[in-house]
Amino acid sequence: MVRAKNLRKITTPSEEALWERLRGRQLLGLKFRRQMPIGPYVADFFCHELRLVLELDGAVHEEPTQMTHDLNRDDNLKALGYRVLRVTNQQVHHDLDAILTTIARLHRHRSVSPLSRPAGWEDGREGPGE
Asked: How many other C-beta atoms lie within 10 A of the C-beta of residue 47?
């Protein structure tokens, strides 16, 4: 809990840009929380209604050890019934609307199993198309 609180005090420009569009139920009335503890993890953003963990990935997430860690973490969260949506900082800055559209699509299809994925989403990880 302390770690999450500290993380909320230090935000990246990408987190700030995304939070500006998610805060205050701006997106379809959905409530998002920032730096939300979920078990041993801290989600960058979390929506309880969608059981959605939204993660922002910077360059460090392209390193092999971090990629392995992220896949394991995602699998653990999915096993607990959460959807995991990973987006890059570049996507936030260059196509934020696509991210919001993806979340809206999840809202429309929230009865879909968290382990299934809509057509066009790649390699088991949910996310907007490149």
From this structure: 24
What the block records as the tokens of 54 is 């939204």
Place of tokens 């993660």: 55
Name the β-bridge partners of 75: none
Task: Count Cβ atoms within 10 A of the Cβ of residue 71 and give its class: 0-12 exposed, 13-18 middle, 19 or more buried.
Answer: middle
| Mean pLDDT across the chain | 82
pLDDT in tens, 55-94: 998 777 677 787 888 999 999 999 999 999 999 999 999 9
Q: 60 or 8: whose pLDDT is higher?
A: 60
User: 89-108 vs 13-22: helix axis angle to the nearest 10?
Assistant: 30
